[in-house]
Amino acid sequence: MTKQLILASSSPRRQEILKQVKIPFTIKIPDVDESQIVTDDPYEKVEQLAKIKGSYIPIENDNNIIISADTVVAFQNKIFEKPKDKEEARAMIRDLSGDVHSVYTGVMIRSQEKEFVFVERTEVEFWPLSAAEIDSYIATEEPYDKAGAYGIQSVGAMFVKRIVGDYYNVVGLPISRVLRELKGF
Ligand SMILES: Cc1cn([C@H]2C[C@H](O)[C@@H](COP(=O)(O)OP(=O)(O)OP(=O)(O)O)O2)c(=O)[nH]c1=O
């Protein structure tokens, strides 16, 4: 029997990535309070949030497979989620400027029989950025619905000098690992 994939995410980027690999899926949006996870460890944070999001969606039959994810940016000992305003976005990009940070995405894959959770990390290096570059970027809509206040897939691409790891992990869904793990379901 064919499996029915359900993406438990409101993120348009995660939807786009899954569409790109031409797997049919439906969307259900988890309504969870992300602030309930209080930890200084980015790995633990995305792992736990992916689990909470994935567990929120009910499994209706044994064909259902649910995929959920959570992404954060980690720089030194700080975790950057979505900036709440312009000042926070500016502070995040300033911190990331001229330095290397990590992007962590936690993923949960869940069926009636089993569940599997994993975390991927991608290293991203930013060019040193001028105050004018940062100001013109935070004046756009782009930073505000993205962890770390930038989108590598959009205008934020101009900040990126180098990455090590899966590009799609930065955008919010490490698709090649997801596809590999799905074979076990
Ligand atoms: C670093 C980075 C993050 N992001 C996005 C991916 C995620 O959508 C978002 C991090 O927020 P998340 O809380 O992981 O996800 P979400 O709230 O957008 O969606 P949902 O919880 O419903 O699944 O940041 C980019 O689009 N590009 C980037 O370069």
Describe the structure.
- With 185 residues, the chain is of the alpha/beta class.
- Helix 3 (86-96) packs across helix 4.
- The longest helix has 15 residues, at 42-56.
- Strand 3 and strand 4 (78-80) form a beta hairpin.
- It has a single domain, classed as Maf protein (Alpha-Beta Complex), CATH 3.90.950.10.
- Strands 1, 2, 3, 4, 5, 6 and 7 form a seven-stranded mixed β-sheet that branches.
- The chain has helices spanning 12-20, 42-56, 86-96, 131-138, 167-171, 175-182; strands at 4-7, 25-27, 64-75, 78-80, 100-110, 115-126, 160-164.
- Residues 9-11, 13-14, 29, 34, 53, 69-71, 73, 82, 103, 146-148, 150-153, 156, 170-172 line the site of thymidine-5'-triphosphate.
The percent of residues in helical segments reads 25-40%
What is the arithmetic mean of pLDDT?
A: 96
Element pattern in H and E = EHEHEEHEEHEHH
Oligomeric composition of the shown chains: single chain
What global shape is seen?
A: elongated
CATH architecture designation: Alpha-Beta Complex
* Number of discrete helical segments: 6
Q: DSSP strand (E) fraction?
A: 25-35%
- Rg, please? 17 Å
**Main β-sheet: number of strands, strand sense, barrel status?**
7 strands, mixed
The CATH topology corresponds to Maf protein
Distance between the terminal alpha carbons, to the nearest Å?
12 Å
Each distinct ligand: thymidine-5'-triphosphate
Structural class: alpha/beta
Contiguous uncertain segments of 5+ residues: none
How many DSSP E strands? Answer: 7
